[in-house]
Amino acid sequence: MRIKSLIALLLLSIAGTTMAQPAESHLVGPGKRGRFNGQSHIEVDLGQKNALVVGFKDFAQLEARRNIDSVLRLFVNDYRRVIDSTQNPLGGTHILFRLGDINRTLDVRHHPQPTTSFRFMAGKADPVLVKTQQDTLQIVWSSATTPLTYYDFSAYMLVNSLGHVERLLQNEGVNGKLQEALLAARHYKHHDLTSPRMSFDLRYRHEGTSIGTNFINPGLAKNPFLIFQPTIGVGLIRSQWVPSVNLDIQFVPTRFKGVGYSVGYLTNFFFQNPTDGQGLIQRNDFLTVGVAFYRKNSDGRTPAFDRLRTSFSVGFLAHRSGDYFAKNTIRLSGTIYQKGFIKIQPELYMNGFFKKVYPGVRIGFGL
């Protein structure tokens, strides 16, 4: 079979920033936002599924580096000198363009296309070979001699082919639409998005007379929140199995650090069989305070608040019935394992400060 033509058609698939993206947004959807550096993001639609995405920590950075066209001209001139014509044009290319104080660096990575796709079109005798991967140009300002894993500010050009960057510059560039997006952010009614205390995502589209602005989750950058964690469990305390009910309310001061602080209430139920044959239930409750640490997401930057690494808590006897615990009993506990809804928590009980210490272990089921 002879192939006479090659076109870069973008299929609606997602596998990273170097892949062809759907027309809706590069920022909305599971895992999409995490592919880009920055606390806030602005996505500018450049037409034909090309886009500019700028990730930044605060609005002042964006104001200082808004002349993206001048940087793109530098890139076009530099890339002409190093472009590898032997590379398969179907593959995707990711370029990290680092602008230092006294030099510029191009770090080039090629991604082979995992499948070969053919498209048959009416009126054409031969099939068309289809490119399914976009190319990505990431621009950063850094004086580091080696690439970093994360940058506070990055500008991404997501294009059908890196050769289209020069074509975009010849038409109208990207500065004009970026300035319009910045103006829309300044005029946002509900928050002052130019404040370093705020974060937001914005998708901006301007085609002809049609202008679209879509603000996504604008608000405080730290975005503190509460996590409610009800749990039922059973513990082994002094060779006796003890069922329990627990409710923790956890305060997470910032979504960028995987640390939460909690206050909770734990109720233990003790069952006894008196000599008269009547069952007796005794309840002993602990008021607890603690701290929890969470693992990172797959991107290695942001915490995953559904993946607990470990936790520690201290509890004080708040309600006592029977003589199972002394009045001054203190409970120390931690989480050493969690998978799904299951938690394993070793415990230490003591009368006062490390007096008459005895261990325990609890298996919990819950959030």
Commentary on this structure:
- It is a single chain.
- This protein is mainly beta.
- It contains four helices and 20 strands.
- The model is unreliable at about 1-20 (pLDDT under 50).
- Number-wise, the strands total 20
Percentage of β-strand residues: over 45%
Mean pLDDT: 83
The strands making up the biggest β-sheet line up spatially as 5-4-8-9-3-2-10-11
Could you list the spans in which at least 5 consecutive residues all have pLDDT below 50?
A: 1-22
Give the SSE map.
Layout: E1 5-7, E2 40-47, E3 50-56, H1 59-64, H2 68-82, E4 92-99, E5 104-111, E6 117-119, E7 128-130, E8 135-141, E9 154-159, H3 164-171, H4 175-186, E10 198-207, E11 210-220, E12 225-237, E13 240-252, E14 259-272, E15 280-296, E16 303-319, E17 329-335, E18 337-339, E19 342-351, E20 358-366
Parallel strand pairs: 1-7, 2-10, 4-8
Antiparallel strand pairs: 2-3, 3-9, 4-5, 6-7, 8-9, 10-11, 12-13, 12-20, 13-14, 14-15, 15-16, 16-17, 17-19, 18-19, 19-20
